[in-house]
Amino acid sequence: MAKSDYLLEMRHIQKSFGAVVALSNGCVRAKSGEVNALIGGNGAGKSTLIKILSGYQPCDAGDILLNGEKVEIHSTTEAQDLGIKTIYQELALFEKMNVYENMYVGRELTIDKRPIKWLKVLDLKKMRENAQAEIKRMGFNIPNIFNRVMFMSGGQRQAIACAKALMGGAPSVLIMDEPTAALGVKEGREIIDLMKKYRDEGAAIILISHNMRTVFEVANEITVMRLGETIASLKKEDTNEEEVVGLMTGAIDNITDERNLIGEYDM
Ligand SMILES: Nc1ncnc2c1ncn2[C@@H]1O[C@H](COP(=O)(O)OP(=O)(O)OP(=O)(O)O)[C@@H](O)[C@H]1O
Ligand SMILES: [Mg+2]
User: Does the global pTM surpass 0.85?
Assistant: First the structure.
């Protein structure tokens, strides 16, 4: 198999926090136009792995490859410049800010023509218009972009976090860490539909989810982590819910036949 079959590969990633080994061997990959579901029990290392990919924190060892080429990612800005966009498990919204302020925090637009050369003037009009347009384009129902996030529902918050993460062009790699955990059925469906839209446009998607129904609905490949280690990578059609849950919990030690594609990370 050519290396570049996978748009994204993370190989043998290690990460410790002091004495805590969060990742001893974290591997995950995804093809363009496909979804790889990353699953594992609480504390298995899923969020730690994808926070390394999104430039949020560095790893101690291991490789990240895009289109078969090794890349170094030192910051969230670098990740975004590589087309890697992330919707985090912790929503990271500012409660006291309104919708468009949340979307533009840290990347505020300024006016070119300014009265004093060294003075930066925020382009509030443009930020409001863009935020409104992005939300509309994604099909979210946010009634008022001037409302503060603290007064909003879980579903609305998730929609804002998505709009913020996906602003400014389609992602080539989209990482979604438990995107539907806090949502009702309808809102959860909207997020999954949005994910499918980006998938169909060619994004490589990594979806972290505890919801096996969602996993088996959308995944092409399922990657299982246990205690900081990726133990199995299986095509969806080669496995079933009972088996992957067994792998997650340890009830099934491992899969040692050719269905387990974990060896491909060494090719
Ligand atoms: N910043 C940190 N400092 C110290 N320990 C951390 C830090 N981040 C993660 N850990 C530890 O690393 C391990 C893996 O955590 P991680 O958040 O990656 O798990 P997870 O698979 O995402 O779990 P969950 O399903 O609960 O979200 C845990 O033992 C956690 O306590
Ligand atoms: Mg997590």
Answer: yes
